[in-house]
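request received
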Amino acid sequence: MPSTYKIFRDPVHNVITFDLKRDKLLLDLVNTATFQRLRNIRQLGFSWVAYPGAEHSRFTHALGACHLAGRVLDQLGKSTPIDPADRVAAQASALLHDVGHGPFSHLYESAFPSALSHEAWGIEIVTNPASDVHQVLAAHDPALPGRVAAVLAKTYRPYFVVQLVSSQLDVDRFDYLLRDSQMTGAQYGLFDVEWIINSLVLANVEIDGVRERSLVIDAGRGLHSVEQHLLGRHFMYRQVYFHPACRAADMITKAVFKRLAAVAHPPEIPTALAAAARGDTPPLADYLELDDFLLLNLFKTWAKSAEDAVLRDLCRRLTQRKLFWALDWSGFGAADRERLFAGLRAGVARAGFDPESYALVDLAADTPYRDVMSFAMRGKPSEEIWVMTDGQLRRLSEVSDVLRSLSNRAVAQVYVCFPPEARDDVAAELHALGFPDTGMKRA
Amino acid sequence: MPSTYKIFRDPVHNVITFDLKRDKLLLDLVNTATFQRLRNIRQLGFSWVAYPGAEHSRFTHALGACHLAGRVLDQLGKSTPIDPADRVAAQASALLHDVGHGPFSHLYESAFPSALSHEAWGIEIVTNPASDVHQVLAAHDPALPGRVAAVLAKTYRPYFVVQLVSSQLDVDRFDYLLRDSQMTGAQYGLFDVEWIINSLVLANVEIDGVRERSLVIDAGRGLHSVEQHLLGRHFMYRQVYFHPACRAADMITKAVFKRLAAVAHPPEIPTALAAAARGDTPPLADYLELDDFLLLNLFKTWAKSAEDAVLRDLCRRLTQRKLFWALDWSGFGAADRERLFAGLRAGVARAGFDPESYALVDLAADTPYRDVMSFAMRGKPSEEIWVMTDGQLRRLSEVSDVLRSLSNRAVAQVYVCFPPEARDDVAAELHALGFPDTGMKRA
Amino acid sequence: MPSTYKIFRDPVHNVITFDLKRDKLLLDLVNTATFQRLRNIRQLGFSWVAYPGAEHSRFTHALGACHLAGRVLDQLGKSTPIDPADRVAAQASALLHDVGHGPFSHLYESAFPSALSHEAWGIEIVTNPASDVHQVLAAHDPALPGRVAAVLAKTYRPYFVVQLVSSQLDVDRFDYLLRDSQMTGAQYGLFDVEWIINSLVLANVEIDGVRERSLVIDAGRGLHSVEQHLLGRHFMYRQVYFHPACRAADMITKAVFKRLAAVAHPPEIPTALAAAARGDTPPLADYLELDDFLLLNLFKTWAKSAEDAVLRDLCRRLTQRKLFWALDWSGFGAADRERLFAGLRAGVARAGFDPESYALVDLAADTPYRDVMSFAMRGKPSEEIWVMTDGQLRRLSEVSDVLRSLSNRAVAQVYVCFPPEARDDVAAELHALGFPDTGMKRA
Amino acid sequence: MPSTYKIFRDPVHNVITFDLKRDKLLLDLVNTATFQRLRNIRQLGFSWVAYPGAEHSRFTHALGACHLAGRVLDQLGKSTPIDPADRVAAQASALLHDVGHGPFSHLYESAFPSALSHEAWGIEIVTNPASDVHQVLAAHDPALPGRVAAVLAKTYRPYFVVQLVSSQLDVDRFDYLLRDSQMTGAQYGLFDVEWIINSLVLANVEIDGVRERSLVIDAGRGLHSVEQHLLGRHFMYRQVYFHPACRAADMITKAVFKRLAAVAHPPEIPTALAAAARGDTPPLADYLELDDFLLLNLFKTWAKSAEDAVLRDLCRRLTQRKLFWALDWSGFGAADRERLFAGLRAGVARAGFDPESYALVDLAADTPYRDVMSFAMRGKPSEEIWVMTDGQLRRLSEVSDVLRSLSNRAVAQVYVCFPPEARDDVAAELHALGFPDTGMKRA
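response:
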């Protein structure tokens, strides 16, 4: 009795089932070399330096997001018929939403200011005729590459397909909060996903002047689960994604990339990385060569044999986990920052290090929840969450006390880091500038 | 090889271990008839009408709270020596903190305005020489009954023992949130208890003008877990503890009690209930006869054979789960309430029912978090949570954005309920009074 | 937006969904007084004396079994169309499979030799025109009561419907193992239910000379999960269901029932219990009056005021949890048993107790797995589990090493119990008969 | 308030705590480059080809095993004082038990017949004065390297320290079953670790003629948990560790290694791998350069540019997950094997492939439980599990029906694999040899 479906076992969802016929497209996409590459890109970049269990890749996350997209569509379908073409576009987009990520995930695109975003690379992967992903999509339906690209670019209609894949209440977040909470062991992001899925409905909402068929929460049912979900994400940012040791590893890696751009040109540098270091956009095929494990190996090589002493030293510290000291300067006023950073650079220089590579600053920020004002200010299409309460559509921030207090409030983190050897010199400089000693307390 | 400890398996904590020697007192307390009675009092009163799994008793909850008290004391002991007498008082009090509950838990004490609180009954059980619990405590140490009573009365010193058992961050809440979340299946109250325990320390805090050795959260470690815990409790209130069907069952039960007080005197009425109905306080032994299962059985008897037709009808509806309609009127302004309630009574009367027993109003409220202002206003000792951040003690509400927004804000629920047969008449009355039809939407 | 389904939250399955239209019958059945009565019958009888968390009722178990029946049918439907009438019969039967249970579940039917089994009461409930359950079924389809009765009597065809509800691999076991494991906290019975459901298919199997459409395990997929499931059940029997303290409580309760039959006739005895004590079968309506809580209350009453001293004493021990000593005599050879039991009775009598009520013997047995030989010997229709391996149907015991060793081997437990006060006298009698002292070791 | 301990969050154990003082040695070991290297060696080699979540490394497993060793020692210490030196040796050895693993874990040592085992490399790492691990151990206590090496070599006394780290009931298995079950999502290996830990005691057992202080299970408590644990391991072997896709990836990787030894000498080959290919043992420092990610990168490189066409093709198939077909030939008799393998080679050759690299055979075996006879036959010190029952020590296989049936029975798996392109030719050869077509059914 040959099986009619393919099952993936999964630590988060247990059983992820694809029907061999109905979901053939999805399975073919999974089997492309481009998608398989996600096995080599970790979901949380360098978070394993602080959370050893954070070794999971974007591969399993993408499978999980695609699975959840299917479950949400099944739920929506109970009350409203879903166009099969929308279903295909939604699930393929959920599967592919991270396919454009570079090594160490978000770190890569933020390290090279001129680099394409992972979303842009994702659209390239979907639309470039040379890409195996494009070929699989086009073989299924010549219009499909364009449709998936539209979802990724957020121009697809009906709008709920975009929301399902990328919004403040999407399957991407559903999966990553559950997965990251479980894998790191820091359980802040666990929430009742069954109950949220259960309370999703479709309704017509006026968004930017147009009525769009949108995902809406039935408040009587799901309001508190959504609050729990958004707060869980907030806690994960504060405690995991902003963890100082992870930020320190990120900062050193960026310093490595910067050094490659400025000075060092080791012969082993991959073509795509050399292009990025020059500010160029590499061809897709070259870009796809890059992944976490290739770069971690290169760092090991350079730690031993790079000609440039700074590159060698940075790579040594990174690969032997001799991380810089990270200090949390979020508590200082914005007005003091430039003086603080100058003091940092002076101290690091006094200790004999090049501040360019050794006095590092990281500004991270997350806004737990954005509502319409925020989007208006940013000139972006509105993405707030709508809830249905007593037969009326209202904005989540109108209905939820808990979230109103967090709406549009960016949680900013200012971390600096430098070699432990420079500690006394940095402290002396700060002291000279009149800052309290608590500034030297390790995060 | 005779075992040296007694183990209880537990759905929440898996293994609860008592050392046969060190914890002999606790085991002796568990074996008293008075403590075993807690098996017959459900943790969540009538919540099983909405959450079928909520069949768990206060017995397992009390074991769990005692177990957690031991774990917190072990953790505190890592950094500060704990006086063995404090440990004994703390664990015995955690075990006994609910021993004074009447049938259906909180419902009972709120049904009879003149009834003693469960805390007062608890102190009576601990101090009354005729009580088996008193005898076990006194046999261990003649001073112990007084010490446990002091913990329950919140006068014990050092103060952290009181906090451990009853505060806004106590083992009672730790256990009930985990247990109620698991048993109801509504998982809002799950939180990372390991991490909170882990971040508890002792510090001297000035409380009401006196420096007290207090439980304090190490903010760098546990702030977000505490936020998650307090929000989880908030969500459980909104979604589970305030569930309209449970409130309806509560209201009908109160109407039964009121009817017993006013009119009906069925011969099977237990002595203690008759006393309560008269406004008297029954002797302890009589009080302890009462439990959920005795009353549920009586309700079944009265449903069939009570002479008083109202009592018979109320009991029939309760035991056959033909509950009243519950409407959520929380959205109406306080100014309108008296007129609304008058309309309700008029409608119910017009439908042929006695408003006294059939037009029921329930005002429930919870304050997710109270800080010092709130306590000051209520003239009670301050019970806010203190956190240690950067070596300084600060109030939780100063440090936490999320909780500040909820601090001292009572979440009030106004439910009314009445027989479904009175629906049209109540609607007509409300309409006549000019209220919108949405007032008739079922909660 | 009125909801189109009813959801129960559940500690085991999280979300149990019934469609308001498609599953109206099931919801109507849940709302009958007869089904609601299951809230008052605990799944594990007296197991709470050893496992405090075992307070869950047959109500939640029946909901869970019905939910799993729906899930299995959905799975089977992926490869084979399921006749809607079979689906209705299967889910209704899964919901009702325990509706005939008496107080303390299995204990009741074993306490009165002439009592109807719970299966027979179940069929009565389904077919008796005065029963609310019958009326709901018949209102849906006049043929349905007969069809459900056929499932409960195992004569329904196609046969897989019977298997789904009652076999060695049925939704009853699926649910109770998961639920009992979670509630007791003894996790032996946890197994990968997702994976088993996933590996179920339908195939034609020759059973007792007739080809029947049967539930079959796809071995390549599910063999090990089924082994894990059956072993989990075996472990639960050994560790939980046969726990000596639970058996002791059962034995005392049976002694109470026997005393009611023989001697004591307290005025409060419920009609149905009096009938059972006389060896009569009470009318259905009387039988349905009985439940755990009614009897536990009566035991409390009789502990205080029964005229018969033995009844009073037994009830006192039971309700104050002063259980008898239980000894495990499974290790003695069958040949010695009668002499051992005689010694026990003599010792108990010497200590001044009536052996009829105080020298109690309990023979419990379970066969972890039965295969065809066993069924043949018992003259029952064959119920072994079939697996599909390499396109061939084979018996599970042919394929599984692990289970072959356990097949048809009854695990027997011989417990005796008596009052602790009789200990020395029983020991002396055993000593006089030449039995080793280990016989007196408490189980 | 500076923290006095270091905590790792962990997906399996939640909180793993090391005291900064008492456990300084362990933390120093964790921080060595040699131990950090375990982050780059996956626990389950290539299992991620079938179980995408199996991306976890030996780093987290080693932390988990060390944590469990501490918990078992705490438990044992409740009844018997533990010598602090034994505790140190036990925990350090648990942490280091896998530190000698090569890339892809067990695969590496089985690929090169002359290679040292990972245990031998572990002893080298502990005793080689140039090793950072050795230096940390020796700095703590000059005798410690020798003591840890003795534990790894199983000569340490008291014997329970060896058992704790490596036996049929050790913390290695405890951790890997829980971790692999969780990460793969195949939950067969979950078992009640709390309960097993709880039932461990120390007792004197005669092992090989000498009385040794040994780990023993208190049968009354833990027998069924141990059965569950050993069966869980058995199921994991059958379903996960022997999964055909994983074996196929293993076989191709071994073919790559063989090709490196025989023919191909790509310039990028790491020194240690070249030495292994020659049959030499590389110096420790070279060996430690090797890890999963280095080799996976090399395979990618060779897939594109290796001069040797066979190496290029094998690497291409491996890195693009175009795995060979795997057939399960375990069902054929041992007598037929050589003829079958010859047919396989002939078919592969006929299809134009070199059988040396393309007709691959894998013989895997596991014995679920070994008892004394088995050890006697193998001439190894006895390692069976002892249980204490009724005050007597007995062998587990005497006491457990379930395990007796599995004792000393090797479960053998015979897999063969070859390129899908050779399918028809292999089938034709088998047909010509008279074997049934089922031989061609994919595993």
